[in-house]
Amino acid sequence: MRNFVDPKVVSRLRGLALDARTPMIGSVSGRHRSPTRGSSLEFSEYRKYVPGDDTRRLDWRAWGRSDRFYIKEYEADTNLRLCLVVDVSGSMNYGPDGSTAEGTTKLDYARRLGGTLAYLASGQGDAVGLYSAGKTFNREIRPKRSGAHLKFVLDELGQMKAEGETGLPEALHQAAERIAQRALVVVISDLFMDPETLKGAFQHLRFRKHDVAVFHLVEQNEIDFQFDRPIRFVDLEGAGPLLVDPTTIAKQYRQAVQTWLEQLRIVFRDSAVDYHRVNIAENYSDVLAKFLLSRKR
Q1: N or C: which terminal CB in the chain sees fewer CB atoms within 10 Å?
Q2: Is the Cα torsion angle 100, 104, 106, 107 positive or negative in sign?
Q3: Where on the phi/psi map is residue 47: left (φ > 0), alpha (ψ -120 to 50), or beta?
Q4: pLDDT tens readout for residues 46-73
Q5: What is 7-19+80-294's CATH number?
């Protein structure tokens, strides 16, 4: 356990399985639907017998009714690959009311979400991987199934630092190509970028048949812009500071933010992405409980 993985939260959420919305291709038997056919209790369909099929799967009642040989097909179940993509740009080093204190920032919140999901997925026999999204695709831990590998993922998650410009679109494109088979890709970011640059990246992931979920982390002041006196804003991703009177730009700022949020909503809707906007003041265990419940089959 790391300090961002709370045993009490894990215990609370253990009864809620992490399910994929689409069929997965895994390496072992598991709890998730597979696009291939196999042996399970859930009947799928009949198909005609062809030489070489296992005769033990013949439906003799169907033969008795039609004098034709039919094979029963069942849904196969497999494990999934959980791939966490965490934004490590400088803006993730922002917390409530502008705080950058350790344990309060968006990156700290991302650690709690990602670490808990990784622990839950590993506990149900799924593979876990981790990708960081800075200016370059600078860290990749490919998904594997083992307790030692989970420790490796959590160690790396704990060592991440938020700095520099974002490279999320490039990281998502590279992840889409490097993740060999279908996976559940969970992106945790504040998404401070042009929505159009994200559209192609998410459609690339969906084209590769990955199930994609996004936790969009926001701090309430970023939405409401409740400042009432001149203030100095600092760009955490490298640009110079800006001294402004908030009362002169508040209306335009709020309109711009609502336009940006609507553009993001359209991008995720059109790309069939499971989108969750999260205020970092929320209890992360409640956020995860809603997420897991929304994906139950």
Answers
A1: C
A2: positive
A3: beta
A4: 677 777 777 777 888 888 888 888 877 6
A5: 3.40.50.410
